[in-house]
Specification:
single chain, about 160 residues, mainly alpha
């Protein structure tokens, strides 16, 4: 979702359908899903959980709930929008970097060099981001950049 979707889109639907008022009759927290499907090492329990809340008190409740089951702990985002933006940037960064590696692989093939050999050499630098060419997986990775673009266009 784009930064603001929870409060701008979801909360009004909840209020309209329930007759209740957010911040008075119910409170809202948000925590993005961060699972990497098929990854046996980075699981729900071992990935730091980003949490947020409509108020500091709600944030503490959401953090306590997730903190009781996520061994890696929680990161308290200062707002729901920050938590939403974190998810968007995580997925966009992954999408862009894999696309970049795919482009490099095409170039290296035309030059006649092995992409894996280039990545192995590049990987010897401490701050090299080890992305590999291939497909981008997951239902949200390919669409998250468009959510952010939508919001950016809306804001001008």
């Amino acid at each position: 979702v784009y930064p603001g979707a929870t409060e701008e889109e979801c909360v009004p639907v909840l209020e309209e359908n329930s007759g209740l008022k957010a911040g008075k009759d119910f409170f809202v927290g948000y925590s993005p899903e961060r699972i990497n499907p098929g990854d046996k090492e980075h699981t729900f329990e071992t990935i730091t959980k980003v949490v947020s809340g409509q108020t500091p008190e709600v944030l503490d409740i959401v953090a306590d709930v997730y903190g009781s089951v996520v061994k890696a702990g929680v990161h308290k985002a200062p707002s729901i929008k920050v938590a939403e933006a974190a998810k968007v940037i995580e997925n966009t960064q992954r999408d862009v970097n894999i696309a970049l590696m795919n482009e490099f692989a095409v170039i290296f093939d035309k030059v006649g060099i092995d992409t894996n050999a280039v990545l192995a050499a590049s990987g010897t630098k401490w701050n090299f981001l080890n992305f590999k060419p291939g497909l981008v997986g997951g239902h949200c990775i390919g669409v998250d950049p468009y959510y952010l673009t939508h919001k950016a266009q809306e804001l001008g």
